[in-house]
Specification:
107 residues; alpha+beta; Endonuclease, Chain A; 4 helices
Length: 107
């Protein structure tokens, strides 16, 4: 686990910290391993390090994202710097997604 992944896990996702939802680390999703997955929200959070800026890796990321979306998941990507230097915005983005998901998927 990278430093950014560890920070996101410890300070926002572990122990149902984010609006009471359970996130799991390094969980299978189809043929992939998601950095973080919340099955209840059909949400995958991916944390991208510097290697994800390379064209070949970026192309693989795009294909992976399409595959995951075809399975019904929403994929939200953050880069390391966002998590390490602007956690408030990361949290706002995730809360916004959760609120939108809840409004569309009322039970």
């Amino acid at each position: 686990m990278t430093k950014a992944e560890a920070c996101l896990w410890k300070y926002r996702l572990s122990g149902r910290q984010l609006m009471g939802y359970r996130f799991n680390r390094q969980r299978p999703a189809g043929n992939y391993i998601a950095d973080f997955l919340c099955k209840e929200l059909m949400l995958i959070i991916e944390v991208d390090g510097i290697t994800h800026q390379f064209e070949e890796v970026n192309s693989k990321d795009q294909n992976r994202q399409k595959d995951l979306q075809s399975m019904g998941f929403t994929v939200i990507r953050f880069d390391d710097d966002e998590i390490l230097h602007d956690m408030a915005n990361v949290e706002r983005t995730l809360i916004h997604y959760i609120e939108m998901y809840k409004s569309v998927n009322k039970k």
